[in-house]
Design brief:
490 residues, mainly beta, Immunoglobulin-like, Neuraminidase, eight-stranded mixed sheet, five-stranded antiparallel sheet
Length: 490
Protein backbone atom coordinates (compact mmCIF):
# COMPACT_ATOMS: atom_id res chain seq x y z
CA UNK A 1 0.00 0.00 0.00
CA UNK A 2 1.45 3.38 -1.02
CA UNK A 3 1.76 6.33 1.31
CA UNK A 4 -0.92 8.02 -0.75
CA UNK A 5 -3.39 5.20 -0.17
CA UNK A 6 -2.53 5.11 3.51
CA UNK A 7 -3.63 8.71 3.80
CA UNK A 8 -7.07 7.90 2.52
CA UNK A 9 -9.00 5.23 4.35
CA UNK A 10 -12.46 4.68 5.68
CA UNK A 11 -11.46 5.80 9.15
CA UNK A 12 -10.34 9.28 8.12
CA UNK A 13 -13.63 11.04 8.74
CA UNK A 14 -14.38 9.07 11.90
CA UNK A 15 -11.11 10.25 13.41
CA UNK A 16 -12.30 13.85 13.21
CA UNK A 17 -14.45 15.23 15.99
CA UNK A 18 -17.85 15.56 14.28
CA UNK A 19 -20.27 18.13 15.60
CA UNK A 20 -23.75 18.99 14.40
CA UNK A 21 -24.10 22.27 12.54
CA UNK A 22 -26.21 23.93 9.90
CA UNK A 23 -24.65 25.01 6.61
CA UNK A 24 -26.48 27.94 5.02
CA UNK A 25 -27.72 27.36 1.47
CA UNK A 26 -25.68 29.26 -1.09
CA UNK A 27 -28.50 29.90 -3.54
CA UNK A 28 -26.86 27.79 -6.26
CA UNK A 29 -29.32 25.17 -7.52
CA UNK A 30 -26.71 22.36 -7.44
CA UNK A 31 -25.28 23.41 -4.12
CA UNK A 32 -26.09 21.29 -1.08
CA UNK A 33 -26.06 21.87 2.66
CA UNK A 34 -23.93 19.45 4.66
CA UNK A 35 -25.69 18.35 7.84
CA UNK A 36 -22.58 17.97 10.01
CA UNK A 37 -19.17 19.64 10.27
CA UNK A 38 -15.75 18.45 11.36
CA UNK A 39 -13.18 20.25 13.45
CA UNK A 40 -10.37 19.21 11.08
CA UNK A 41 -9.34 19.97 7.55
CA UNK A 42 -10.13 17.57 4.70
CA UNK A 43 -7.44 15.14 3.57
CA UNK A 44 -7.06 16.10 -0.07
CA UNK A 45 -4.88 14.86 -2.89
CA UNK A 46 -2.71 16.52 -3.97
CA UNK A 47 -1.99 18.25 -0.68
CA UNK A 48 -2.44 21.92 -1.56
CA UNK A 49 -3.12 23.16 1.98
CA UNK A 50 -0.89 26.08 3.00
CA UNK A 51 1.11 26.16 -0.23
CA UNK A 52 2.25 29.33 -1.99
CA UNK A 53 1.40 29.65 -5.68
CA UNK A 54 2.09 32.22 -8.42
CA UNK A 55 -0.68 34.29 -9.99
CA UNK A 56 -0.35 32.43 -13.30
CA UNK A 57 -0.49 28.79 -12.15
CA UNK A 58 -3.03 26.32 -13.52
CA UNK A 59 -6.03 25.42 -11.32
CA UNK A 60 -5.14 23.39 -8.23
CA UNK A 61 -7.65 20.63 -8.88
CA UNK A 62 -7.87 18.09 -6.07
CA UNK A 63 -9.83 15.10 -4.77
CA UNK A 64 -11.02 13.45 -1.58
CA UNK A 65 -10.88 9.67 -1.83
CA UNK A 66 -14.07 7.65 -1.28
CA UNK A 67 -16.19 10.76 -1.60
CA UNK A 68 -19.12 10.92 -3.96
CA UNK A 69 -20.52 14.41 -4.31
CA UNK A 70 -18.01 17.12 -3.34
CA UNK A 71 -18.22 20.88 -3.02
CA UNK A 72 -15.56 23.56 -2.63
CA UNK A 73 -15.98 27.28 -2.11
CA UNK A 74 -13.10 29.73 -2.45
CA UNK A 75 -12.99 32.94 -0.42
CA UNK A 76 -10.66 35.90 -0.12
CA UNK A 77 -10.76 38.23 2.89
CA UNK A 78 -14.15 36.82 3.88
CA UNK A 79 -15.73 37.24 0.46
CA UNK A 80 -16.83 34.10 -1.36
CA UNK A 81 -15.56 34.40 -4.92
CA UNK A 82 -16.07 30.94 -6.44
CA UNK A 83 -18.01 27.74 -5.83
CA UNK A 84 -17.32 24.41 -7.54
CA UNK A 85 -19.11 21.06 -7.31
CA UNK A 86 -17.92 17.67 -8.46
CA UNK A 87 -18.57 13.94 -8.42
CA UNK A 88 -16.37 10.95 -7.52
CA UNK A 89 -14.69 13.21 -4.99
CA UNK A 90 -12.99 15.33 -7.68
CA UNK A 91 -12.91 19.13 -7.81
CA UNK A 92 -12.07 20.58 -11.24
CA UNK A 93 -11.94 24.36 -11.22
CA UNK A 94 -12.91 26.28 -14.40
CA UNK A 95 -9.79 27.91 -15.85
CA UNK A 96 -11.17 31.42 -16.45
CA UNK A 97 -12.77 31.61 -13.01
CA UNK A 98 -9.56 30.35 -11.40
CA UNK A 99 -7.50 33.03 -13.14
CA UNK A 100 -9.91 35.69 -11.93
CA UNK A 101 -9.71 34.28 -8.40
CA UNK A 102 -5.90 34.39 -8.43
CA UNK A 103 -5.90 37.97 -9.68
CA UNK A 104 -8.23 39.10 -6.89
CA UNK A 105 -6.30 37.25 -4.18
CA UNK A 106 -2.76 38.21 -5.33
CA UNK A 107 -0.64 39.04 -2.32
CA UNK A 108 -3.10 37.40 0.07
CA UNK A 109 -4.80 34.09 0.85
CA UNK A 110 -7.54 32.00 -0.68
CA UNK A 111 -9.52 30.07 1.93
CA UNK A 112 -10.93 26.79 0.61
CA UNK A 113 -14.02 25.26 2.26
CA UNK A 114 -14.68 21.62 1.33
CA UNK A 115 -17.78 19.47 1.95
CA UNK A 116 -18.16 15.84 0.90
CA UNK A 117 -20.91 13.23 0.73
CA UNK A 118 -20.14 9.50 0.95
CA UNK A 119 -21.59 6.20 2.18
CA UNK A 120 -20.65 6.88 5.78
CA UNK A 121 -22.05 10.40 5.72
CA UNK A 122 -24.83 10.50 3.11
CA UNK A 123 -26.04 13.85 4.50
CA UNK A 124 -22.63 15.44 3.98
CA UNK A 125 -19.79 16.67 6.18
CA UNK A 126 -18.20 20.13 6.03
CA UNK A 127 -14.54 20.58 6.96
CA UNK A 128 -12.52 23.43 8.33
CA UNK A 129 -11.01 25.60 5.57
CA UNK A 130 -7.41 25.47 4.43
CA UNK A 131 -5.47 28.43 3.01
CA UNK A 132 -3.58 28.85 -0.25
CA UNK A 133 -1.26 31.85 -0.41
CA UNK A 134 -1.09 33.66 -3.76
CA UNK A 135 2.28 35.29 -4.32
CA UNK A 136 2.29 38.31 -6.63
CA UNK A 137 5.43 37.04 -8.38
CA UNK A 138 4.65 35.10 -11.55
CA UNK A 139 6.39 31.95 -12.68
CA UNK A 140 7.92 31.21 -16.09
CA UNK A 141 5.08 30.20 -18.42
CA UNK A 142 6.48 26.81 -19.52
CA UNK A 143 8.60 23.93 -18.30
CA UNK A 144 10.33 21.28 -20.40
CA UNK A 145 11.06 17.74 -19.23
CA UNK A 146 11.64 14.19 -20.39
CA UNK A 147 9.03 11.47 -19.87
CA UNK A 148 10.37 7.94 -19.47
CA UNK A 149 9.46 4.65 -17.83
CA UNK A 150 11.43 4.30 -14.58
CA UNK A 151 13.41 1.33 -15.83
CA UNK A 152 17.08 0.54 -15.68
CA UNK A 153 18.30 -0.18 -19.20
CA UNK A 154 15.39 -0.44 -21.61
CA UNK A 155 12.56 1.77 -22.83
CA UNK A 156 9.81 1.81 -25.39
CA UNK A 157 8.86 5.44 -25.79
CA UNK A 158 10.94 8.42 -24.76
CA UNK A 159 10.15 12.01 -25.46
CA UNK A 160 11.00 15.56 -24.52
CA UNK A 161 7.80 17.37 -23.62
CA UNK A 162 6.69 20.84 -22.58
CA UNK A 163 3.90 21.99 -20.32
CA UNK A 164 2.12 25.33 -20.08
CA UNK A 165 2.07 26.10 -16.35
CA UNK A 166 -0.91 28.44 -16.72
CA UNK A 167 -3.07 25.66 -18.14
CA UNK A 168 -2.93 21.91 -18.64
CA UNK A 169 -1.59 22.08 -22.18
CA UNK A 170 1.19 19.58 -22.81
CA UNK A 171 2.89 18.91 -26.14
CA UNK A 172 5.85 16.98 -27.46
CA UNK A 173 9.04 18.82 -28.36
CA UNK A 174 10.54 15.70 -29.91
CA UNK A 175 10.05 11.96 -29.36
CA UNK A 176 11.62 8.71 -30.51
CA UNK A 177 8.37 7.61 -32.20
CA UNK A 178 10.11 7.25 -35.58
CA UNK A 179 12.99 5.24 -34.11
CA UNK A 180 12.34 3.64 -30.73
CA UNK A 181 15.96 2.48 -30.52
CA UNK A 182 16.98 6.08 -29.86
CA UNK A 183 17.31 7.47 -26.36
CA UNK A 184 16.72 11.22 -25.97
CA UNK A 185 18.23 12.97 -22.95
CA UNK A 186 20.04 15.95 -21.42
CA UNK A 187 18.02 18.77 -22.96
CA UNK A 188 19.04 22.32 -22.14
CA UNK A 189 18.29 25.94 -23.07
CA UNK A 190 20.34 29.17 -23.03
CA UNK A 191 19.01 31.68 -20.45
CA UNK A 192 15.52 30.09 -20.39
CA UNK A 193 15.05 30.78 -24.11
CA UNK A 194 12.61 28.59 -26.02
CA UNK A 195 14.21 29.73 -29.30
CA UNK A 196 17.34 27.63 -28.84
CA UNK A 197 17.91 24.21 -27.33
CA UNK A 198 20.12 21.14 -27.41
CA UNK A 199 19.67 17.49 -26.52
CA UNK A 200 21.45 14.20 -27.05
CA UNK A 201 20.11 11.45 -29.28
CA UNK A 202 21.76 8.17 -28.30
CA UNK A 203 21.68 5.42 -30.90
CA UNK A 204 23.12 4.17 -34.17
CA UNK A 205 22.84 7.56 -35.85
CA UNK A 206 23.02 9.61 -32.70
CA UNK A 207 24.79 12.77 -31.67
CA UNK A 208 24.13 16.08 -30.00
CA UNK A 209 21.23 17.89 -31.67
CA UNK A 210 21.60 21.66 -31.67
CA UNK A 211 18.85 24.14 -32.57
CA UNK A 212 20.36 27.62 -32.55
CA UNK A 213 19.77 30.83 -34.51
CA UNK A 214 16.98 29.08 -36.40
CA UNK A 215 19.26 26.30 -37.64
CA UNK A 216 19.37 22.58 -36.87
CA UNK A 217 22.63 20.66 -36.69
CA UNK A 218 24.06 17.45 -35.30
CA UNK A 219 27.41 17.35 -33.56
CA UNK A 220 29.37 14.13 -33.12
CA UNK A 221 31.72 15.02 -30.31
CA UNK A 222 33.50 11.67 -30.52
CA UNK A 223 34.86 12.85 -33.87
CA UNK A 224 36.07 16.35 -32.91
CA UNK A 225 38.39 17.93 -30.33
CA UNK A 226 39.47 15.39 -27.72
CA UNK A 227 36.96 12.96 -29.28
CA UNK A 228 34.91 12.45 -26.14
CA UNK A 229 31.17 11.90 -26.02
CA UNK A 230 29.38 14.64 -24.11
CA UNK A 231 26.81 14.11 -21.38
CA UNK A 232 25.50 16.74 -18.93
CA UNK A 233 25.26 20.23 -20.49
CA UNK A 234 25.22 23.82 -19.25
CA UNK A 235 24.56 26.54 -21.82
CA UNK A 236 26.43 29.77 -21.12
CA UNK A 237 24.07 32.74 -20.55
CA UNK A 238 25.46 34.54 -23.63
CA UNK A 239 24.12 31.72 -25.83
CA UNK A 240 27.41 30.96 -27.54
CA UNK A 241 29.22 28.43 -25.36
CA UNK A 242 28.02 25.14 -23.90
CA UNK A 243 29.90 23.44 -21.07
CA UNK A 244 29.68 19.65 -21.00
CA UNK A 245 30.83 16.83 -18.83
CA UNK A 246 32.03 13.74 -20.65
CA UNK A 247 30.99 10.71 -18.61
CA UNK A 248 31.70 7.00 -18.86
CA UNK A 249 28.72 5.66 -16.92
CA UNK A 250 28.08 2.16 -15.57
CA UNK A 251 25.46 0.41 -13.44
CA UNK A 252 25.65 -2.15 -10.63
CA UNK A 253 22.57 -4.05 -9.45
CA UNK A 254 22.01 -5.00 -5.81
CA UNK A 255 20.48 -8.25 -4.57
CA UNK A 256 19.48 -6.76 -1.22
CA UNK A 257 18.85 -3.36 0.32
CA UNK A 258 16.71 -0.32 -0.37
CA UNK A 259 18.33 0.60 -3.70
CA UNK A 260 17.90 -1.71 -6.72
CA UNK A 261 20.99 -0.35 -8.44
CA UNK A 262 23.82 2.16 -8.34
CA UNK A 263 24.87 4.37 -11.25
CA UNK A 264 28.40 5.75 -11.28
CA UNK A 265 31.13 7.14 -13.53
CA UNK A 266 34.35 5.36 -14.34
CA UNK A 267 35.62 8.60 -15.80
CA UNK A 268 34.34 12.13 -16.32
CA UNK A 269 35.89 15.35 -17.60
CA UNK A 270 34.81 18.91 -18.40
CA UNK A 271 34.96 20.65 -21.77
CA UNK A 272 33.38 23.67 -23.47
CA UNK A 273 31.95 23.85 -27.00
CA UNK A 274 31.85 27.05 -29.07
CA UNK A 275 28.67 26.99 -31.15
CA UNK A 276 30.01 29.68 -33.53
CA UNK A 277 33.44 28.26 -34.34
CA UNK A 278 32.85 24.57 -33.65
CA UNK A 279 35.91 24.55 -31.38
CA UNK A 280 36.11 22.32 -28.31
CA UNK A 281 37.83 24.17 -25.45
CA UNK A 282 39.61 22.13 -22.78
CA UNK A 283 41.74 22.73 -19.69
CA UNK A 284 44.30 20.06 -18.70
CA UNK A 285 43.16 20.27 -15.07
CA UNK A 286 39.72 18.95 -16.02
CA UNK A 287 40.90 16.16 -18.32
CA UNK A 288 42.78 13.88 -15.91
CA UNK A 289 42.04 10.31 -14.84
CA UNK A 290 42.76 11.08 -11.18
CA UNK A 291 39.74 13.38 -10.70
CA UNK A 292 36.17 13.02 -11.93
CA UNK A 293 34.32 16.25 -12.77
CA UNK A 294 30.65 16.38 -13.72
CA UNK A 295 27.36 18.35 -13.64
CA UNK A 296 28.55 21.77 -14.88
CA UNK A 297 26.41 24.87 -14.23
CA UNK A 298 27.10 28.53 -15.08
CA UNK A 299 26.50 31.47 -12.81
CA UNK A 300 23.83 33.83 -14.22
CA UNK A 301 26.52 36.35 -15.25
CA UNK A 302 28.60 33.63 -16.91
CA UNK A 303 31.70 34.46 -14.87
CA UNK A 304 31.84 31.18 -12.93
CA UNK A 305 31.45 27.55 -13.85
CA UNK A 306 30.18 25.39 -10.99
CA UNK A 307 30.59 21.61 -10.98
CA UNK A 308 31.16 18.64 -8.67
CA UNK A 309 34.36 16.61 -8.45
CA UNK A 310 35.61 13.45 -6.73
CA UNK A 311 38.81 11.46 -6.51
CA UNK A 312 38.85 8.42 -8.76
CA UNK A 313 38.24 5.09 -7.00
CA UNK A 314 38.35 1.41 -7.83
CA UNK A 315 34.80 0.88 -9.09
CA UNK A 316 32.41 -0.72 -8.46
CA UNK A 317 34.07 -2.05 -5.28
CA UNK A 318 34.61 1.42 -3.81
CA UNK A 319 31.43 3.07 -5.05
CA UNK A 320 30.36 3.91 -1.50
CA UNK A 321 33.61 5.85 -1.11
CA UNK A 322 32.74 8.19 -3.97
CA UNK A 323 32.14 11.59 -2.37
CA UNK A 324 31.75 14.57 -4.68
CA UNK A 325 32.85 18.05 -3.63
CA UNK A 326 31.07 21.20 -4.82
CA UNK A 327 33.46 23.37 -6.84
CA UNK A 328 33.57 26.54 -8.89
CA UNK A 329 36.11 28.10 -11.20
CA UNK A 330 36.21 31.64 -12.70
CA UNK A 331 35.80 31.87 -16.46
CA UNK A 332 36.93 34.65 -18.82
CA UNK A 333 34.74 34.59 -21.93
CA UNK A 334 37.07 37.00 -23.76
CA UNK A 335 39.91 34.48 -23.64
CA UNK A 336 37.94 31.26 -23.04
CA UNK A 337 40.16 30.51 -20.04
CA UNK A 338 39.63 29.32 -16.48
CA UNK A 339 41.06 30.71 -13.24
CA UNK A 340 41.81 29.05 -9.91
CA UNK A 341 39.34 26.51 -8.55
CA UNK A 342 37.52 27.01 -5.26
CA UNK A 343 35.90 24.37 -3.05
CA UNK A 344 32.47 25.45 -1.75
CA UNK A 345 31.48 22.15 -0.14
CA UNK A 346 34.14 19.70 0.97
CA UNK A 347 32.56 16.27 1.08
CA UNK A 348 35.46 14.80 3.07
CA UNK A 349 34.94 17.35 5.83
CA UNK A 350 31.18 17.94 5.67
CA UNK A 351 30.14 14.44 4.67
CA UNK A 352 27.99 13.02 1.93
CA UNK A 353 28.17 13.81 -1.77
CA UNK A 354 26.94 16.70 -3.93
CA UNK A 355 25.19 16.65 -7.31
CA UNK A 356 23.31 19.02 -9.64
CA UNK A 357 24.53 22.49 -8.58
CA UNK A 358 22.11 25.17 -9.78
CA UNK A 359 22.41 28.91 -9.10
CA UNK A 360 19.50 31.32 -8.60
CA UNK A 361 18.91 34.09 -11.14
CA UNK A 362 20.23 36.75 -8.76
CA UNK A 363 23.40 34.72 -8.22
CA UNK A 364 22.91 34.53 -4.47
CA UNK A 365 21.83 30.95 -3.79
CA UNK A 366 23.15 27.60 -4.93
CA UNK A 367 20.81 24.64 -4.71
CA UNK A 368 22.22 21.14 -4.96
CA UNK A 369 21.25 17.53 -4.25
CA UNK A 370 22.89 15.77 -1.31
CA UNK A 371 23.18 12.02 -0.92
CA UNK A 372 25.33 9.74 1.22
CA UNK A 373 27.67 8.93 -1.67
CA UNK A 374 27.89 8.81 -5.44
CA UNK A 375 26.60 11.13 -8.13
CA UNK A 376 23.30 9.69 -9.30
CA UNK A 377 20.92 10.48 -6.43
CA UNK A 378 17.62 9.56 -8.07
CA UNK A 379 18.08 5.98 -6.82
CA UNK A 380 19.05 7.13 -3.32
CA UNK A 381 16.06 7.34 -0.95
CA UNK A 382 18.07 9.58 1.38
CA UNK A 383 18.72 12.16 -1.35
CA UNK A 384 17.62 15.68 -0.36
CA UNK A 385 17.88 19.23 -1.65
CA UNK A 386 20.32 21.52 0.14
CA UNK A 387 21.24 25.14 -0.42
CA UNK A 388 24.17 27.50 0.14
CA UNK A 389 23.90 31.28 0.47
CA UNK A 390 26.77 32.39 -1.78
CA UNK A 391 26.96 35.72 0.05
CA UNK A 392 27.63 34.18 3.46
CA UNK A 393 28.72 30.69 2.33
CA UNK A 394 26.37 29.29 4.98
CA UNK A 395 23.74 26.62 4.40
CA UNK A 396 20.10 27.72 4.35
CA UNK A 397 17.47 25.47 5.90
CA UNK A 398 15.38 24.05 3.03
CA UNK A 399 14.29 20.90 4.86
CA UNK A 400 10.60 21.63 4.20
CA UNK A 401 11.24 20.86 0.54
CA UNK A 402 12.34 17.30 1.26
CA UNK A 403 10.61 14.01 1.91
CA UNK A 404 12.25 12.02 4.74
CA UNK A 405 11.89 8.64 3.03
CA UNK A 406 12.16 9.11 -0.73
CA UNK A 407 14.53 10.77 -3.18
CA UNK A 408 14.28 14.47 -3.98
CA UNK A 409 16.67 15.16 -6.79
CA UNK A 410 16.94 17.18 -10.00
CA UNK A 411 15.92 20.84 -9.66
CA UNK A 412 16.04 24.12 -11.55
CA UNK A 413 15.40 27.80 -10.80
CA UNK A 414 12.89 30.08 -12.49
CA UNK A 415 14.18 33.09 -14.40
CA UNK A 416 13.26 35.57 -11.65
CA UNK A 417 14.79 33.34 -8.98
CA UNK A 418 11.78 33.00 -6.69
CA UNK A 419 10.51 29.58 -7.81
CA UNK A 420 12.06 26.14 -8.19
CA UNK A 421 10.84 22.93 -9.76
CA UNK A 422 12.28 19.58 -8.70
CA UNK A 423 11.72 15.86 -9.06
CA UNK A 424 10.57 13.72 -6.15
CA UNK A 425 9.57 10.10 -5.63
CA UNK A 426 7.66 10.87 -2.44
CA UNK A 427 4.30 9.52 -3.63
CA UNK A 428 5.28 5.90 -4.22
CA UNK A 429 9.07 5.58 -4.24
CA UNK A 430 9.20 4.62 -7.91
CA UNK A 431 7.87 7.35 -10.20
CA UNK A 432 9.46 10.78 -10.20
CA UNK A 433 6.91 13.60 -10.26
CA UNK A 434 7.38 17.34 -10.33
CA UNK A 435 6.97 19.72 -7.40
CA UNK A 436 7.09 23.52 -7.39
CA UNK A 437 8.04 25.73 -4.45
CA UNK A 438 8.41 29.42 -3.70
CA UNK A 439 11.56 30.83 -2.04
CA UNK A 440 11.86 34.37 -0.74
CA UNK A 441 14.87 36.63 -1.42
CA UNK A 442 16.71 35.11 1.55
CA UNK A 443 16.17 31.61 0.24
CA UNK A 444 13.55 30.58 2.78
CA UNK A 445 11.25 28.08 1.06
CA UNK A 446 7.53 27.49 1.37
CA UNK A 447 5.83 24.10 1.22
CA UNK A 448 6.16 22.56 -2.27
CA UNK A 449 3.12 21.58 -4.31
CA UNK A 450 2.61 18.86 -6.90
CA UNK A 451 2.38 19.97 -10.54
CA UNK A 452 -1.37 20.57 -11.11
CA UNK A 453 -3.27 18.26 -13.45
CA UNK A 454 -6.70 18.67 -15.03
CA UNK A 455 -7.79 15.45 -13.30
CA UNK A 456 -5.85 15.01 -10.03
CA UNK A 457 -6.01 11.24 -10.45
CA UNK A 458 -3.75 11.61 -13.48
CA UNK A 459 -0.84 12.06 -11.08
CA UNK A 460 -1.32 8.38 -10.19
CA UNK A 461 -2.49 7.06 -13.55
CA UNK A 462 0.45 8.29 -15.60
CA UNK A 463 3.08 5.55 -15.53
CA UNK A 464 5.96 7.77 -16.58
CA UNK A 465 8.69 9.53 -14.64
CA UNK A 466 9.34 13.22 -15.16
CA UNK A 467 13.02 13.83 -15.76
CA UNK A 468 15.18 17.01 -15.84
CA UNK A 469 12.55 19.78 -15.51
CA UNK A 470 13.72 23.13 -16.93
CA UNK A 471 11.89 26.46 -16.96
CA UNK A 472 11.54 28.17 -20.36
CA UNK A 473 10.05 31.46 -21.52
CA UNK A 474 7.69 30.07 -24.15
CA UNK A 475 6.71 27.14 -26.31
CA UNK A 476 9.45 25.32 -28.21
CA UNK A 477 8.73 24.75 -31.90
CA UNK A 478 11.41 22.59 -33.50
CA UNK A 479 11.35 22.00 -37.27
CA UNK A 480 9.81 18.66 -38.23
CA UNK A 481 13.11 17.73 -39.85
CA UNK A 482 14.72 17.31 -36.43
CA UNK A 483 13.85 13.59 -36.35
CA UNK A 484 15.81 13.05 -39.56
CA UNK A 485 18.98 13.90 -37.67
CA UNK A 486 18.82 10.79 -35.49
CA UNK A 487 16.86 8.29 -37.58
CA UNK A 488 18.84 5.21 -38.45
CA UNK A 489 19.99 5.10 -42.03
CA UNK A 490 18.17 2.51 -44.12
Amino acid sequence: MTKYMQLYNRDTISKCLIVLSIIILSGCSSWKSASISADCRPVIFPDYAEVTVPTNIAPLNFMVEEAGHIQASFSHEGNELLKVTGEEGVIQIPLKKWRSLLAQAAGGNIDVYVSVWNEEHPQGVAYLPFPIHVEETEIDPWIAYRLIEPGYRSWRQIGLFQRNLSSFEESAIVTNATDNETCLNCHHFPAYSSQSMMFHARGANGGTILYHDGKLSKIKFNEIGPKKNTTYPAWHPDGRLIAFSSNTTRQTFYLHGEKPLEVYDYASDLLVYDTETGEVITDPRFMTEETLETFPAWSPDGKYLYYVAADAKNLPDQVEEMHYHLMRVPFDASTNSFGQTDTLYNAHVQGGSASYPRISADGRHLLYTWSEYGTFPVWHPEADLRMIDLKTMEHVDVSCLNDPEEADSYHSWSSEGRWIVFGSRRLDGRYTRLYIAYLDEDGNPDKPFLLPQEDPRYNLWRLKSYNVPEFIDGEVDLPDSVVKLFEQEK
